Amino acid sequence: MAAAKRRLALPFWEKDRVDVAIATNMISVGLDIVRLGVTVVMGQPKTSAEYIRATSRVGRDPDRPGLIVTVLNIHKPRDRSHYERFAGCHQTFYRSVEARSVTSFSPRALDRGLAGTLIALARQGHLPMTPPKGAGEILRERPRLDFAVDALADRAQSHAKMDPADAAKLRQTVQERALDLLDEWSKYAKELSDAGVALQYQVEAGAARRRRGNRGGG
């Protein structure tokens, strides 16, 4: 593999160069050869993400533009649809990029999703926390929110398909991070409260704005 990539990178005047490389859809990952200038795609890939990655292998040098040729099969509905809406698809295909799968309770998943999930559980699972300005109630209700922490920790442990010791360690990690988030939430609510501001989850969409001035007009 290393030798093939080395030959692909050689300029055209080198004797050992490669003029044509035939590849499967695996070309969409890891083939970063600046020299490549033309890609021929045989058929519309199954996903938009794969199509974008595969066709982005060329044209990476700003001084040497790339050319992409897509050969579609008229007998395949997906290919035909792509052909009939070719311009529109290429102008907006980033809208149709498929969601990427994630590993539940992985470090990155916890970074992105734990806070929102914890807040949702606290808000929906404990009535005083539910109203829009209920976020500030954490200053009084904090001891009664451990149920949300325990629910997430238990879910992490039961989801983990691993050695019991590792599952217990994951449970502890989720529990500690959730408790830290509740502490940060309480700290932020306290700072706002001291400043005379009520903490709320968000400004509700479509909420009526307070009018200034006299209501009677004139």
Structural classification: mainly alpha
Shape: elongated
The H-and-E topology, N to C, reads as HEHEHHHHHH
**What is the residue-averaged pLDDT?**
84
Rg over CA atoms, rounded to whole Å, is 28 Å
Alpha carbon gap, first and last residue = 81 Å
The DSSP helix count reads 8
Strand order of the largest sheet: 1-2
- Beta-strand portion reads under 5%
Helix proportion range: 40-55%
* Largest sheet: number of strands, sense, barrel closure: 2 strands, parallel
Count of β-strands: 2
Task: Provide the domain count.
Answer: 2
Q: Which parts are unreliable, with pLDDT below 50 for 5 consecutive residues or more?
A: 210-218
Q: Helices and strands in order, then pairings?
A:
Blueprint: H1 2-8, E1 38-42, H2 48-55, E2 67-71, H3 77-84, H4 86-92, H5 107-125, H6 138-141, H7 146-159, H8 164-194
Parallel strand pairs: 1-2
Helix pairs in contact: 5-7, 5-8, 7-8
Features:
218 residues; elongated; disordered C terminus; 2 domains; mainly alpha; two-stranded parallel sheet; 2 strands
Describe the structure.
This protein is 45% helix and 5% strand. By secondary structure, it is mainly alpha-helical. The chain folds into two domains: 2-96, no CATH class; 107-194. The protein has a two-stranded parallel ribbon with strand order 1-2.
Summary, kept brief:
The chain is mainly alpha-helical and 218 residues long. The protein has helices at residues 2-8, 48-55, 77-84, 86-92, 107-125, 138-141, 146-159, 164-194; strands at 38-42, 67-71. The chain contains 8 helices and 2 strands; from the N terminus they run H-E-H-E-H-H-H-H-H-H.
